[in-house]
């Protein structure tokens, strides 16, 4: 599957779930949802209920439709989706079915529902992963049956024998030179014993077992080792249905806390001028690249990665930043404190400014991704 198609599927699933939350809560709160679109306009086509024909009818192209029912549309730009709610921009305040006519609590619930759905989606995915079985790192001094321990490649340094022989992050080492090994010290010992000589690794990657050959270096940088890999010991975490749901909820919470902590550290670094944390930030290009890397490890890794992205999307959207759900919720709270709505012009300018900042940040991160993932170099090497 091409990297672009895989990226569209993952991103589309995340945004579809988010927008579905807005859609369901808006309908439950008595608001009219004018359009529920997959992808961004212009519209390819859609379906809307016809009272006359007593069925959904096809709407071709981007023409305006006047209907009391929701248009379910497919749009040309496949990255994401949207829900268009009547009165969400402040118009129609006197119409009973508009967003603007509702009280503060229904509006906040509608805006927050997308974030809630992202967390719920992550919880479901992680629970499924734990029911299937997912590798986890052994904790220090953890006692476990040695037969349940596997040695996994945690990192492959670029320009090393490990990269040349085709080893990849996530590979599980089955044997070295035909000898089955269970712990990291044993693998490291065999690598050192074969410096300057060809060594054979049998590894498990997704559902495949591969045999790879290379030669560990005699001279090497101090922080890389003879082969150029970092190793870790893992075991498979697998639970029954109810335990997986409980552990899935715990994992979702822990990853949410980590995400919030990471954003806090990043913002602190930006304030102090420290750019170190920016190295870990990726935009759509970086996420597409990582999606491909993770999918190569196997479907279970892709599910878990999608869950983490869903948590990240939820946390980012609930932040009180202009143009995001959290920023719109902030204005509703300010309205309650003030006792009167904030002027539409002020709020509009606030969100436009925030949207501009987000676009500029996205451009900056994408430029950084081009350098970090050597996109130009990889394209040049195709010719």
Report on the structure:
With 383 residues, the protein is α+β, with helices and mostly antiparallel strands. Helix content is 48%, strand content 21%. It contains 10 helices and 10 strands. Strands 4, 5, 6, 7, 8, 9 and 10 form a 7-stranded antiparallel sheet that branches. It has a 3-stranded antiparallel sheet with strand order 2-1-3, with helices on one face. The model has no long low-confidence stretch (mean pLDDT 84).
Tally of separate helices: 10
Q: Regions with pLDDT < 50 over 5+ consecutive residues? A: none
Order of helices and strands: HEEEHEEHEEHEEEHHHHHH
How far is the first residue's CA from the last residue's CA?
A: 23 Å
Q: Strand fraction band?
A: 15-25%
Structural class: alpha+beta
> Got a strand count?
10
- Main sheet summary: 7 strands, antiparallel
* Coarse shape: elongated
Rg over CA atoms, rounded to whole Å, is 25 Å
Mean pLDDT: 84
Q: Portion of residues in helices?
A: 40-55%
Question: What's the SSE blueprint?
Answer:
Blueprint: H1 3-28, E1 33-50, E2 55-60, E3 71-85, H2 104-132, E4 134-137, E5 150-156, H3 161-165, E6 172-176, E7 179-180, H4 184-193, E8 199-205, E9 208-214, E10 229-237, H5 241-272, H6 284-297, H7 299-318, H8 325-338, H9 344-372, H10 375-380
Antiparallel strand pairs: 1-2, 1-3, 4-10, 5-6, 5-10, 6-7, 6-8, 8-9
Helix pairs in contact: 1-2, 1-6, 1-7, 2-5, 2-7, 2-8, 5-7, 6-7
